[in-house]
# Entry
Amino acid sequence: MPLIFSKFRKNVEKSRREEQEFRPGKKDVAICKKCDAVYFHKSWHHKLEDYKQLSEEKAVNFLLCPACKMLEDNKFEGQVIIENVPEEYKDDVSANIKNTGERAYKRDPMDRVSSIKYSPYGGSPSGRQVSSDKSKYNIEVLTTENQLARNIARQIEKAFKGTKTDVRWSKEESVARIVVRFKI
# Structure
């Protein structure tokens, strides 16, 4: 395993997860085949025009960016379950989720809302009915980044005052599972 040489951690081995997430930066340029995100300077960007030092000597590779790969493999790093959403707030909550996801995507092309699923309150996102209250909903949101899931939960909590949030971080993987409950 490679050693880390930094100001704070001297001669410490990287964990397997750390090595997978923070690989050494590629020297060339990569373009995502699906979303056209561009990799240079050790991160993904929206436009190749932002790369001022581009020269003809740089090799260009076409591959799937990490976010598109996660979407293709049905993987996620963030899960937000919004419970007991009153019917009159369903559209507002959905718009809040989409707007937060769009703002995050504009900042970083790897931050994406993977899916949004609606189910009757007391039911599961797969649609299995448990409760007979059809005026309330559960909404499940999956994201490619765990911090985006946390931000979505914060925005809902800020916009709708009758909510309570419970955040759980996985110890084995970098997944955040967040439950937001409406108490209205």
Notes: The chain has two domains: 3-63, 78-182. Residues 90-107 form the longest helix (18 residues).
